[in-house]
Specification:
Elements lengths: L4 E5 L4 E2 H13 L3 E5 L8 E8 L7 E9 L14 E4 L4 H5 L3 H12 L4 E4 L2 H8 L6 E2 L6 H6 L3 E2 L8 E3 L2 E4 L5 H12 L2
Helix pairs in contact: 3-4
Length: about 190
């Protein structure tokens, strides 16, 4: 696998595992990953939240770690990156309101570069208008957004992932092995 330069767009109350695990896993196989957040610079941190599945009607949320950003949002250009990662959690809910973030997401689809989104990351994909005619998995509560964006919501087990063209998606962090494996395939093309 050749070394790729990967952009990760995240924000406060991103899901802890969905941010830290892919960040470290991608770097561990030789990729460069730049984690950024609007209005923050390299060295700043974002708060994370730990979402867990404990038998309630939805996930529970607990305070997570501070995640250190390693690049400055204002300095990056999407065209300098080979791929994009969008973690879930609560961050995509408000990141989708940022026009620069939405434009960055669109760029990766316009030029057909690999994109990996997990859980609530589908909210950002829907806002960018890139799901029409695409299969997309996400946390089940995001099904309406996927379908309103004219995507095909894939109701798959929580530990599975789905690839459609340049996009790999998964319902939540238990899918990391499948999600990352499928993203590695896209990165190696």
């Amino acid at each position: 696998m050749s070394n790729k330069k990967i952009l990760m767009i995240t924000g406060d109350f991103t899901e802890d595992y969905e941010t830290m695990v892919p960040f470290q896993a991608l770097m561990s196989v030789g990729h460069t990953v730049h984690a950024v957040c609007p209005d923050k610079k390299s060295g700043d941190t974002v708060a994370t939240a730990i979402h867990d599945f404990e038998g309630d009607q939805t996930y529970t949320e607990k305070p997570g770690h501070r995640f250190a950003l390693n690049a400055t949002f204002a300095d990056i250009k999407a065209e300098d990156y080979d791929a994009l990662v969008i973690p879930g959690g609560r961050a995509p809910e408000y990141l989708r309101l940022n026009k620069a973030v939405v434009a960055m997401v669109k760029h990766f689809f316009d030029v057909n570069k690999p994109v990996a989104a997990v859980c609530h990351g589908a909210q950002l994909l829907a806002a960018a208008g890139v799901l029409e005619g695409r299969k997309c998995s996400a946390y089940p509560a995001c099904q309406p957004e996927v379908e309103l964006a004219k995507g095909e919501f894939m109701d798959i087990p929580v530990d599975q992932a789905v690839t459609d063209g340049n996009l790999v998606t998964a319902p939540a962090w238990p899918a990391h092995p499948a999600w990352l494996a499928q993203f590695y395939v896209l990165l190696d093309k």
